[in-house]
Amino acid sequence: MKCRKQWAVGLLVGFTAVGGLFAGATKDQGATGSTGASTVKPVTIKVGDNWGPTHPMAAALDSVFKPQIEQASKGAITVDIYHSGTLGNEADLWNAVRNGTIEVAIVGTPMNQEYPTMMISDWPFLYRDLNHAKKVWTGPVAEEINTEFHQKFPTVYMLAWGPNSARTFTSNKKLTSVDDFKGQKFRMPSNPIHVGIAENLGASAQVIPLGELFSALETGVVDGQDNGMVTVISEAFYEVQKYLYETNHIIATLEIVVSAPFYDKLTADQKKIIGDAAKATAAKAWDDYIKSVDSDRKFLQDKGVTVTPTTAEDQQRIIQMIQPLTDKLFVEHAWAKPLTDRIKAVQ
Q1: CB atoms < 10 A from the CB of 238, how many?
Q2: Distance CA 317, CA 315 (A)
Q3: CA distance linking residue 142 with residue 55, whole number of Å
């Protein structure tokens, strides 16, 4: 009888121990999940840009970046997008990502004074056409600069390069030929290439943030500005400008950048989801932008803007007039000649 009691007690202790093991496993399922798969802590990505929602990059954030990430992560990653400078101007967005205040931003080249290689985004007359530009910035050249970029700015990763636009000039004063630049005042980005182009063409340049540009055009602080037709539309500049000269002097890019301290804490799967979505977003934006050029031109003409394509002769005159600028850039930057030659060779 005594043996039976001892056996029963031992059996009870054994079941209790095993039960404790199962209880421990159940308790830890917040980390492992009921199926043994890893359960990832929810993540929210705050994304800021400086563009209206109709700009191809902004639109691709809404149609590709956000849904692709949220679907691929099965809701574990939430993407909140803020367009039109809601989170600040371009310099603010760059500093916010760099400092970790926001996770992702779409910027141009506010960092080009610290990292002059980014001036390549604004190099004049660099590409054969828009498709050539897309091939460059969705290929190996972009990947190599991304690596160098992170070495220069360890708190930021560059994820992808999308289109800003093929830049054109607009004005309230007559602007239908190269000779019309003389004496006009143009808002130009805070970039020596843009400022140099305006000055070499006989105009004066004034640096004004994009968010303040509509008012500056409306009140006559400047006569005109340079941006792509897509931006002229998304920012409604056609309401305060009469002429557009389709110079296409720069095919500028916008970059998707992410805060490294945020990104480095993610799992490998999460990084891949976000990285893939960034590349898909840029590719979609390039395709949409290239398709939009003809319809953008017609839209502006329908709004009463005089749109004048640049003739081959005028383009050569512009290239010759800005030669002092490009010569100066090649002298000042050892990277410029090899990189521009490599870009021009991309097929």
Answers
A1: 19
A2: 5
A3: 22
pLDDT at 243: 98
Encoded amino acid at 38, one letter? S
Contact 118, 153 (CB under 8 A): no
Helix (H, G, I), strand (E, B) or coil at 285: helix
Mean confidence (pLDDT) of the chain: 90
Note the pLDDT tens digit of each residue in 126-142: 999 999 999 999 999 99
pLDDT per residue over 309-319, tens digit each?
Answer: 999 999 999 99
One-letter identity of residue 86: T
CA distance 272 to 274: 5
Residue with tokens 């039976």: 4
Which residue, among 177, 218, 217, 170, has the nearest Cα to 201 in the 3D structure? 177
What is the C-alpha separation between 65 and 52, in angstroms, rounded?
16
Residue 43, strand partner residues = 77
- Strands 243-246 vs 156-171: parallel, antiparallel or unpaired: antiparallel
CATH 1.10.10.410 fits 43-345, yes or no: no
- Amino acid identity at 164: N
d(CA 254, CA 346): 20
* Both tokens assigned to 199: 């000055």
Is pTM, for the whole model, over 0.70? yes
3-state secondary structure of 87: coil
Please compute Rg for the chain using Cα positions: 27
DSSP state of 180: G
User: What is the Cα–Cα distance from 131 to 137, expressed in whole angstroms?
Assistant: 10
User: For the chain, percent helix, then strand, then coil, each to nearest 5?
Assistant: 55, 20, 30
Euclidean distance between CA atoms 110 and 92, whole angstroms: 9
Query: Residue 98: how many CA atoms within 13 Å on its side-chain side?
Result: 13
Are 50 and 211 in contact, with CB atoms under 8 Å apart?
yes
Q: Which residues, in sequence order, are CB contacts of 333 under 8 Å at separation 6+?
A: 116, 117, 119
